[in-house]
Design a protein that fits this description.
about 55% helix; 6 helices; about 5% strand
Length: about 180
């Protein structure tokens, strides 16, 4: 699973590395976030998602420093934390006392790289592409957690996807994103 996470993170990091200062105020497919706010969201939850791999309740909180380096460093730390098979076993938490299956949280991390990577790519006029195994996995994880995600406010109402939609477009629609969204 850690290999799949790394393959999800690589395109995400390419997208993030191409964001320019003039992009930060651009809207994203996540209507409550512009690019800067989405980056801040990712940096806010990253310590908790890293800690979840080690079964540590690390509260969410912003990571200090310039965002490009902070985000790259945090992605590397997260990938390292989720590398052992034990990270994916048992129960864990995302910074609080509520426990979730560790493989569900690991799947959320992979989903964050793909879904929010797509959000950032769309918002900054970049192309986003992940290998088919990653996309297939993310679709399965979104399908697995869509109802729970909606009840928690993580996902919006299911959007429509074209009949000939790719699996990525179907995952996006299931998570509440319009696959045809553009700036």
């Amino acid at each position: 699973m850690s290999d799949l996470m790394a393959r999800a993170a690589a395109p995400f990091l390419e997208i993030v590395g191409s964001i320019q200062p003039h992009n930060l105020a651009a809207p994203t497919p996540c209507s409550e976030f512009d690019v800067q706010a989405l980056i801040d969201h990712l940096l806010h939850w990253a310590p908790s998602l890293e800690g979840a791999a080690r079964k540590e309740a690390v509260p969410p909180g912003a990571i200090p420093g310039p965002w490009p380096e902070a985000l790259r460093t945090q992605v590397a730390r997260t990938l390292t934390a989720w590398r052992p098979a034990s990270a994916w076993e048992g129960m864990t938490t995302m910074g609080g006392s509520f426990e979730l299956p560790a493989d569900l949280v690991g799947g959320m991390v992979i989903g964050e790289f793909v879904l929010h990577g797509w959000d950032l790519a769309r918002a900054t006029d970049q192309h986003a592409e992940w290998d088919p195994d990653v996309v297939s996995y993310v679709y399965g994880e979104v399908a697995r957690s869509a109802d729970q995600g909606r009840s928690m406010g993580v996902y919006g109402p299911e959007a429509s996807a074209p009949e000939n939609a790719s699996l990525l477009e179907k995952a996006l629609a299931l998570s509440g994103r319009s696959p045809s969204w553009s700036t």
